[in-house]
What does this fold into?
Amino acid sequence: MAMNANAPKVEIERVGDIALIRIDNPPVNAMSERVRQGLEAALIALAADPSVRALALYGAGRTFVAGADIREFGKPLAPPDPNDLIGRIENFAVPVVSILHGTVLGGGLELALGTHARVGVEGVQVGLPEVLLGLLPGAGGTQRLPRVAGVAAALDIILSGRKVSDREALSLGIIDRLVRDAPRDAAIAMAKSVLDGSLSTRRVKDLHIKPENALIEQAAEEVKRRQPNLVSPLRCIEAIAASTRPLSEGLIAERKAFLDCMNTTQRAGLVHAFFAERAVTDIPEKTAIPRPVAAIGVIGAGTMGSGIATSALLAGFPVALVETSDEALRRGFETISANLDGAVRRGQLAADLRDRTLGMLSLSAELVDLDRADFIVEAAFENLDVKKSIFAALDVIAKPGAIMASSTSFLNIDDIAAVTARATDVIGAHFLPPAELTRLLEIGVGTRTAPEVVATAFALAKRLGKVGVRAGMGDGFIGSRIVRQSFRAAERMMIDGTRPSQIDQALERFGFAMGPFRSLGLSGRNPDQAGRERKTGQGFYDHSQDPIVPYKPALQIIEEEGEKAGIPPHSFTDEEIVSRYMTAMISEAARVVENGIALRPIDVDAVLLFGYGFPRFRGGPLHYADTLGPTEILNRIERYAVEDSGFWQVPDLLRRMAERNGTFAKLNEMRQAPAERHSG
Ligand code: 3HC
It folds into this structure.
């Protein structure tokens, strides 16, 4: 983007006795050091000007301020302190109104809460999402939001980090009025309204606040139960509880909690996860122009195909779904209907749009009915011959320029593409079950896949609300290959006498959404195991019970097998379980990076975070690896290798890192596109 880096970030414009302050720091007007300096200078200059009777603050571009500058986290805060700045606004002698448009989040909303009236432009969303970054609002949000919206709403908004719609913000009193004007026009009009008395103003710090001790306690109990690993939610509650004290005291309590959170590894992990979601779009094909996609085709109406179809329908695409039998099509239709009902329950789809959305689905038992689709996803049985015959047929049927994607997790895209006369249009699109919910979309790029086909797959991922991650060809893409290896480590511990349920519990306490054996029983991410399990109807758990319980026969067999092999029963500690599981995961992840299957370590982190329930507050396996350091990981592998040197091998990349003081974070920086490295 061509931008003048030295352009002022804050500008004053005079309109009669009104002064407009415009914040202009693309792309999202983050409140960086220079913005804070610019605001301070503007306020000082305007305070000294007796001809100014009202101030209006607004943002240039797509949004008012979307928060503090996350890139400045972890460094000492440069002056001016946002609290001083916001205090300066709150105490300003003449009225100050703020015009809110776009996504007014975190420090942006906190800034607005310092002004004397807040006017939203229709469509604005407000929120305090700091908790999602392991923090709490640190510029007065925990003190001023309860004052305008009450403790209950503040607890909800701050603990969820959710975005609040314009109407809700109005009804909660977070904004005072909604308008339709462009921000600058609104700024002029609203400052005039303040002057003629038709828009009233007040200082939030002076508002009375009703103590809600019972609500505070209840919220704390719930957080302890539901998010036992997280530090910042409890600190949010503590700061909100302090809002009944005078503002100056509450701000001190808030700041202490904020700084404590800022210094945690959780905050670093969550911020890494935030950037991971965005870093993965930096692909070699990013300058290629995506092909237009208006209609989607899906082959296979099983759980996976139905999930993919649901996801496309929810994004507004017409979908043609093809299966071999009417019976399978009927089941697919039922699954998709039920998925859409689920989307309505979650608030993802408006109830009155449900039938119309389902109406965009057409069913067919003939591949030729895919002749109008621009992007076809094959989600048939995971078998190379099956896929080859489908792609050979598609080659005849699909319209010119249509993209033919396979949702394989293991097979080589080149082998599948080879049966077609248009290998450049073939790509991997690995969705994960449940495909309508899981955010990850691994995009497997074959040797001959055309750049614009890759770009189209990424554009489609975005429209589906998914996180596309580029994967090269190897033995499995990124995720399944890594998870298979850590699963093997879990199996080895099991064979050594540790119960699967104990392994699951240890990893769930570490933060995984689901332990490996439990997730196996549900989704079958490990294909060999899942296949066996589905065929025999047996697993490690009895899923007919709620909550599910370990499946006794399976455990007995495991113990008997151990005895036969002469292995004494042995139970690893939780710490040892996590160590072995994570060491296996990190080792394989390092190989995936070393072989270039993943572009960068952060891409691997994104895959595990968005597709495999990896604890977000740990930032992903390779971010977590950096917190241990390469030498520690190397030592662990060598220690385990004494028992089993075939399985435990040190990847070259890790050895080199240990020798040269390297980290995955440094590797991320080195592999970033040069242009971006210099502009930030
Ligand atoms: N600081 C620095 N960079 C930011 C940023 C922020 N607060 N918010 C967004 N960006 C960057 C993104 O990294 C991205 O950069 P890239 O183009 O180099 O990848 C670019 O801005 C555009 O962002 P998105 O791609 O996410 O654009 P969208 O339009 O999809 O979303 C958004 C915009 C809703 C503002 C989204 O970016 C977002 O949620 N941002 C984070 C908001 C946030 O968490 N604010 C609170 C910060 S903490 C705080 O304020 C502390 C205070 O209490 C003291």
